[in-house]
């Protein structure tokens, strides 16, 4: 009898959880789940804010893939941007983290220096800085010309504009570096000792000890960075406005122009779902490949 | 002896790489700082880092802003948007995290899985319906789209981060509070919350940073210059004149990044811990 009473008090108490979750449940339904479904519905319509919405089936998607030349270019450029920036950031942050992980003097200052650029994320101020630095008569060209290299049009040349924007993204590898630094510190020293007793060299012990141990973190950061890169907007909008010759016209920018400049909401929603598919595709690909290279300690 | 020598050489090489790369990393920011004192002509085509003369003219001119709206207003706007958003995020996220971390209830597994899945929901795919939603409830051209999403805990990252932190606090704390007659809310407010300070602070810092740096959402939700945030104003000053006054733009850009830099140096420890414990993107 007594036990039953405590149980009922307990379950009463446990049920209060729903009260605490309520803000999130409302927020999740209204601001996340509903918009997700609504954008799918819009993508099958000709919604343009003003007129009545008509369903047009797959028309938007068919137009995107068959008639809209801009879209193919956008899709290509977006994937290219992710392929330039994500691997570069991962490798760079891992290398610097490895160099910094040995307790050297002055590590604190160096870590700060490498981290600092990533504070500004997608901020407009650094996008403006990039534009000014890489202008035809900007200071990058001034420095290069003092070495006798002249007249590189970083933002005017369709072949160079995307790499120049990618460089801005790559410059901000600091936060993943800090993440790897923490992960490297958590690798048990005993594993390295065992590896060195077995006669492993530095490179060998990186691949047999370090990499497997931090692979879950790498896995996670590849996914998060791909999600960011595939949605990039600010740098393309501010620095190049998508040009020259649409060479930096990423899907995020196309979405903005179609949706918020021309109010072709249905069409823009279809573009947003293509971005979503790219992201889901990347994530699934990562999960599928994870068995080959991601090591989870408890499985072993 | 030769091994020692070899190690010294290795150290020198490692240091050289780290320092050289570090200089390249930091140079754009240093250059930005000094460029803000230069004249427009000097910014173009000069390889010198330091300005010929330090002049505050570009700051004074730049601060005047656009069309009669000064940067005083843009900064007030920015903080009017960022501070409530940050506060609301911290409050709502910690309440929800408490619900997830400290109770056993029906459907917990499913709800938590939904929370984790929503971390990967890209902003691009929900932005159009969200815009329409805020348009229908008449809150466009205000900071309410930011307040509402923050108040209703639409930042799953922070919930997850705080849940992780809760797991480090022993359940005995709750149990003894219950025995003393505390209700769940009192337990949360008086016993657990004071112990959560580091996690709440980290969450607040990152939310401040992200909202402060945000451009895409502000661009979509806010359209009258009087309500512009610093980000929007900066972009406008780039487009407003046919010949860009780079000295002015650099001066105000420099001021715009200053709060973030100051915040970072004051709270460096929390930044590093925040990233390290949850893998937040910076």
What key phrases describe this protein's structure?
heterodimer; A: 300 residues; mainly alpha; MetI-like fold; B: 282 residues; 74% helix; 0% strand
Written account of the structure:
The complex is a heterodimer of chains A (300) and B (282). Chain A has 300 residues and is an all-alpha fold. Chain A is 73% helix and 0% strand. Chain A has a single domain (68-299), classed as MetI-like fold, CATH 1.10.3720. Chain A is globular and about 75 Å long. By secondary structure, chain B is an all-alpha fold. Chain B has helices at 2-35, 40-43, 57-63, 71-102, 108-118, 123-136, 144-151, 156-167, 172-179, 184-195, 197-213, 216-221, 230-240, 246-266, 268-278.
- Provide the low-confidence segments of chain A as ranges: none
Helix/strand structural class of chain B: mainly alpha
CATH class of the largest domain in chain B: Mainly Alpha
Low-confidence stretches of chain B: none
Q: What number of domains of chain B?
A: 2
Main sheet specs of chain A: none
Helix share bin of chain A:
over 70%
* CATH architecture field of chain A: Orthogonal Bundle
What best-fitting shape of chain A do the alpha-carbon axes yield?
Answer: globular
Alpha carbon gyration radius of chain B: 24 Å
CATH architecture of the largest domain in chain B: Orthogonal Bundle
SSE pattern of chain B:
HHHHHHHHHHHHHHH
Multimer state:
heterodimer
Largest sheet of chain B: none
Average pLDDT of chain A, to the nearest integer? 89
């Amino acid at each position: 009898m007594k036990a039953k009473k405590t149980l009922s008090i307990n379950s009463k108490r446990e049920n209060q959880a729903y009260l605490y979750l309520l803000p999130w449940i409302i927020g999740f339904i209204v601001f996340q789940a509903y918009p997700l479904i609504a954008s799918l519905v819009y993508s099958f319509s000709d919604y343009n804010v003003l007129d009545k919405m008509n369903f047009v089936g797959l028309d938007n998607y068919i137009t995107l893939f068959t008639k809209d030349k801009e879209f193919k270019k956008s899709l290509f450029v977006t994937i290219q941007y992710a392929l330039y920036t994500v691997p570069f950031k991962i490798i760079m942050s891992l290398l610097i983290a490895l160099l910094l992980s040995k307790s050297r003097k002055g590590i604190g200052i160096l870590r700060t220096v490498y981290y600092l650029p990533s504070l500004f994320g997608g901020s407009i101020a650094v996008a403006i800085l990039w534009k000014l630095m890489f202008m035809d008569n900007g200071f990058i060209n001034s420095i290069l010309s003092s070495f006798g290299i002249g007249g590189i049009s970083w933002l005017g040349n369709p072949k160079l504009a995307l790499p120049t924007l990618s460089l801005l993204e790559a410059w901000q590898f600091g936060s993943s570096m800090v993440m790897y630094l923490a992960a490297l510190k958590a690798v048990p020293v005993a594993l390295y000792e065992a590896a060195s007793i077995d006669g492993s060299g530095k490179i060998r012990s990186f691949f047999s000890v370090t990499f497997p141990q931090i692979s879950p973190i790498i896995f996670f950061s590849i996914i998060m960075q791909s999600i960011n890169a595939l949605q990039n907007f600010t740098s393309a909008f501010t620095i190049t406005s998508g040009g020259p010759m649409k060479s930096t016209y990423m899907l995020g920018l196309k979405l903005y122009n179609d949706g918020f400049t021309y109010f072709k909401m249905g069409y823009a929603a279809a573009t947003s779902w293509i971005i979503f598919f790219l992201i889901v595709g990347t994530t699934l690909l990562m999960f599928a490949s994870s068995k080959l290279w991601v090591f989870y300690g408890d499985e072993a | 002896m030769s091994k020692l020598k070899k190690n010294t050489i290795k150290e020198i090489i490692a240091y050289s790489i780290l320092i050289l790369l570090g200089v390249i990393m930091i140079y754009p920011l240093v250059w930005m700082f000094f460029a803000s004192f230069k004249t427009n002509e000097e910014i173009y085509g000069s390889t010198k880092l330091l300005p010929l003369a330090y002049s505050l003219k570009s700051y004074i001119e730049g601060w005047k802003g656009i069309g009669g709206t000064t940067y005083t207003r843009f900064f007030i706007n920015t903080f009017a948007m960022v501070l409530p958003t940050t506060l609301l995020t911290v409050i709502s996220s910690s309440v929800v995290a408490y619900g997830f971390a400290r109770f056993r209830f029906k459907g917990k597994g499913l709800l938590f899985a939904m929370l984790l899945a929503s971390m990967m929901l890209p902003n691009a795919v929900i932005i159009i319906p969200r815009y329409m939603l805020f348009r229908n409830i008449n809150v466009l051209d205000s900071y309410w789209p930011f307040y509402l999403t923050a108040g209703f805990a639409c930042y799953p990252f922070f919930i997850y981060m705080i849940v992780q932190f809760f797991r480090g606090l022993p359940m005995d704390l709750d149990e003894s509070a219950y025995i003393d007659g505390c209700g769940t809310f009192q337990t949360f407010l008086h016993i657990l919350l004071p112990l959560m300070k580091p996690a709440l602070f980290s969450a607040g810092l990152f939310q401040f940073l992200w909202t402060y740096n945000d451009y895409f959402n502000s661009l979509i939700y806010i359209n009258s210059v009087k309500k512009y945030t610093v980000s929007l104003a900066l972009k406008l000053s780039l487009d407003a004149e046919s010949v860009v006054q780079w000295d002015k733009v650099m001066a105000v850009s420099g001021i715009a990044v200053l709060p973030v830099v100051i915040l970072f140096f004051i709270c460096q420890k929390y930044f590093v811990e925040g990233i390290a414990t949850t893998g937040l993107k910076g």
